[in-house]
Specification:
Layout: E1 3-5, E2 12-14, E3 16-19, H1 35-47, E4 52-54, H2 64-71, E5 81-86, H3 94-108, E6 113-121, H4 123-131, H5 134-143, E7 147-154, H6 158-166, E8 172-176, H7 187-196, E9 200-204, H8 217-224, H9 232-241, E10 248-251, H10 256-268, H11 276-292, H12 312-322, H13 328-336, H14 363-375
Parallel strand pairs: 3-4, 3-10, 4-5, 5-6, 6-7, 7-8, 8-9, 9-10
Antiparallel strand pairs: 1-2
Helix pairs in contact: 1-2, 1-10, 2-3, 6-7, 8-11, 9-10, 12-13, 12-14
The protein binds NADP nicotinamide-adenine-dinucleotide phosphate and iron/sulfur cluster (2 copies).
One iron/sulfur cluster (SF4) binds at residues 297-303, 312-313, 316, 356-357, 359, 361, 363.
């Protein structure tokens, strides 16, 4: 495993961190985690040198923290820094903050959280944290030894990102960053801005929720032309580790094979590894992706459950698949096979999901696009 400096803190973080938002499942229910497999995967990653594990209150319908807590029993807790997040949208007083932290400590079976984040900050949530004096609350929790450091994860525009960065001497933050998102949300400019202030940068969604792992045929061809042979995942991850501002890359690994592959890629990583030609190849991939103009859903599931049972991310995934060359028939068949309530056509446009989407997607409008694509054929 390669280790990298974590901002100004006295901590060398593993290049690869374990993101526990996409643990293996036994059924299509997010709460139905395959615990045995998930625990094996987390422990194996730690044995191979991963020393940063990231979870959050809502992951897997509230079960994610419990499974991470189980994985970290038997001495594994001492080998890692543990990160989890305050569900900012659920707190209305400092008492709520106390209550959620106490619950999280219990679920995670630990007496302290090393890195505690205000989850998924945007303009409104930051205003709320300021109004509730969340930072004063966090400093008290640090004094009590309940949390080690306070940070935030972020989904909004760059201006808001800089405003939050400037508001407090944060030791770290977590941003969505991958080769498609250099100009989106915090983006490359935000990454550099925060790093210049000495903040550690934890990268989330490095494969854009898996999209960069499974390239459409026409994009895969760009890689075939490169003299350097590596998998799409290796291209995407090594591009991140190439940048000195990136501290650790969280990967939401769903299978043992993915853990093994990503560990192997991480062991090959280093700053300034890629040649200018290789960076140009990544730029070509990005350009080709942009031409496809898909729905930019990262399958984070934050919009679920829909009160009417619509499986929002699955509909968007099938839509995106459909517009890759030669893949329409297959995607169309899979759409028709969805249970009726899960189909885009079951959306009643109540709007409940829209404000939960970190990508700012106009979900009901886009579901309408899905219906049109799959019913007008
Ligand atoms: N704070 C926040 O607001 C927030 C938001 C999002 C994420 N996060 C954190 O950041 C972590 C990372 O984000 P992410 O889960 O979106 O990461 P990601 O790496 O962009 O996406 C993970 C998905 O990529 C695919 N994948 C990973 N490794 C692969 C490999 N070697 N080969 C093929 N496919 C591979 C898998 O998709 P398949 O399932 O298709 O196999 C996996 O589910 C999360 O787990 C979570 O801890 C935080
Ligand atoms: S707008 Fe549609 S998809 Fe969103 S929560 Fe309402 S019914 Fe579900
Ligand atoms: S629609 Fe938005 S909230 Fe829902 S899974 Fe996709 S990116 Fe996440």
């Amino acid at each position: 495993m390669q280790y990298r400096q974590f901002g100004k803190l006295n901590f060398q973080v593993s290049a690869l961190g374990f993101g526990a938002m996409r643990l293996p499942l036994k059924s299509h229910e997010q709460t139905d985690i395959d615990e045995t497999q998930a625990i094996k995967m987390i422990r194996y990653a730690i044995e191979q040198g991963v020393n940063y594990v990231d979870t959050a209150y809502p992951y897997h319908g509230g079960k994610g923290e419990i499974v991470v807590g189980k994985a970290l029993k038997d001495g594994y807790r001492q080998k890692v820094k543990l990160a989890t997040k305050m569900p900012v949208w659920l707190v209305n007083t400092q008492k709520d903050m106390d209550r959620y932290l106490t619950e999280q400590l219990q679920k995670l079976n630990t007496d302290h959280i090393d890195f505690y984040l205000f989850h998924s900050l945007d303009k409104d949530r930051w205003t709320k944290i300021e109004r509730l004096k969340g930072l004063e609350w966090a400093e008290k929790a640090i004094q009590k030894g309940l949390i080690g450091h306070i940070g935030f994860s972020f989904h909004d525009d760059r201006q808001t990102f800089k405003k939050i960065v400037d508001a407090y001497p944060w030791p770290f933050c977590q941003i969505q960053y991958n080769y498609l998102d250099t100009d989106f949300q915090a983006g490359e400019e935000g990454l550099k801005y925060a790093a210049q202030k000495g903040m550690a940068i934890v990268v989330m969604e490095p494969l854009r929720g898996g999209r960069l792992a499974h390239l459409p045929e026409e994009i895969e061809k760009i890689l075939e032309q490169s003299p350097v042979k590596r998998s799409p995942v290796a291209w995407a991850l090594l591009w991140l580790w190439n940048q000195k501002e990136v501290s650790t890359v969280l990967s939401g690994m769903s299978t043992f094979q993915q853990v093994k592959e990503n560990l192997k890629i991480a062991s090959q990583s280093r700053i300034n590894l890629l040649t200018p030609e290789e960076i140009e190849t990544i730029a070509k991939l990005k350009k080709a992706f942009n031409k496809l103009s898909p729905i930019n859903c990262t399958r984070c599931n934050y919009c679920l459950p829909c009160p009417n049972g619509v499986n929002i991310p699955r509909n968007f995934e099938l839509y995106n698949n459909a517009f890759q060359s030669g893949a329409f028939e297959d995607a169309h068949r899979q759409y028709l096979a969805l249970p009726e309530e899960e189909k885009a056509s079951s959306c009643l446009e109540c709007g409940d999901c829209e404000e939960k989407c970190p990508q700012g997607l106009a979900i009901p409008d886009l579901l309408n696009k899905v219906v049109q694509a799959f019913t007008e054929q």
